[in-house]
């Protein structure tokens, strides 16, 4: 069943998809007239946030394409609005940071270490993209957390995933002399299971001293 509910979103078999038609004047730049792909989430909130971000990225890309296609002597007087709006970063991409981390650490660690790092890098890059490590936001981290929990991972497993991502980023920032990046730090995972357990009832001193009836 396909449901249309939010702009640029539809749901098929419970999974949300992003869908956006390419403007006719930009067809020459694409191999299709419509962009459609799975967002790999069943969460309405996560899908809405991702769709809004993707739609914004497309608008910037389309503005740049249109600006570059203008052939006019007045062009040199115009500002590239898309370039101004886009955050510019010279930092390594997440996958590149992962490669540096593995190159330095994997040779002295068990094979499970490489597997954990590969998985830790794959999850955020597939969900929100392979971006410069200093451009990931807390929204990206929260989306990743929600994705993990939707897949049924325990809080312990989710915590370990974030620890791996943080270790990768922290190592890279130290090696390159970058400022600390805290986007994936202290991500809220919900209340501790222990704190949710019912407390054992307490008894007064009088109750303890009073002998039980025969």
Q: Roughly what fraction of the amino acids lie in strands?
A: 5-15%
* CATH architectural label of the largest domain: Orthogonal Bundle
- The quaternary organization reads as single chain
Number of helices: 8
What's the count of strands? 4
Estimate nothing, just give the exact number of structural domains.
Answer: 2
Major sheet, described briefly?
4 strands, antiparallel
Instruction: Please identify the top-level CATH class of the largest domain.
Output: Mainly Alpha
- Determine the N-to-C terminus distance: 68 Å
CATH topology of the largest domain: DNA polymerase, domain 1
Helix-strand string: EEEEHHHHHHHH
Low-confidence stretches: 80-86
- State the share of residues found in helices, binned by percent: 40-55%
Strand-pairing-aware structural class: alpha+beta
Strand order of the largest sheet: 1-2-3-4
Mean pLDDT: 80
Q: What would you report as the Rg, rounded to the nearest angstrom?
A: 25 Å
The general outline is globular
What does this structure look like?
The chain is built from eight helices and four strands, in the order ββββαααααααα. The protein is an alpha+beta fold and 214 residues long. It folds into two domains: 2-85, no CATH class; 94-189, DNA polymerase, domain 1 (Orthogonal Bundle), CATH 1.10.150. Strands 1-2-3-4 form a four-stranded antiparallel beta sheet. α3 (94-105) packs antiparallel against α4 (111-128), α4 packs across α5 and α4 crosses α6. It is globular and about 55 Å long. The model is unreliable at 80-86 (pLDDT under 50).
């Amino acid at each position: 069943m396909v449901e249309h509910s939010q702009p640029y979103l539809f749901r098929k078999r419970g999974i949300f998809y992003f869908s956006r038609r390419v403007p006719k004047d930009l067809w020459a730049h694409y191999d299709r007239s419509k962009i459609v792909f799975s967002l790999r989430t069943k969460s309405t909130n996560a899908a809405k946030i991702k769709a809004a971000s993707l739609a914004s990225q497309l608008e910037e890309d389309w503005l740049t394409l249109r600006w570059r296609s203008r052939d006019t002597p007045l062009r040199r007087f115009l500002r590239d609005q898309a370039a101004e709006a886009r955050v510019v970063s010279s930092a390594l991409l997440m996958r590149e940071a992962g490669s540096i981390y593995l190159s330095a650490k994997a040779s002295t660690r068990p094979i499970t270490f490489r597997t954990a790092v590969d998985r830790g890098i794959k999850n955020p890059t597939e969900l929100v993209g392979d971006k410069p490590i200093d451009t990931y936001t807390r929204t990206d981290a929260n989306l990743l957390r929600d994705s993990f929990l939707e897949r049924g991972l325990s809080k312990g497993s989710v915590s370990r995933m974030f620890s791996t991502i943080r270790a990768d980023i922290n190592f890279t920032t130290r090696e390159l002399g970058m400022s600390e990046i805290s986007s994936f730090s202290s991500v809220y995972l919900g209340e501790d299971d222990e704190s949710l357990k019912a407390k054992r009832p307490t008894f007064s001193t009088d109750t303890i001293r009073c002998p039980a009836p025969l």
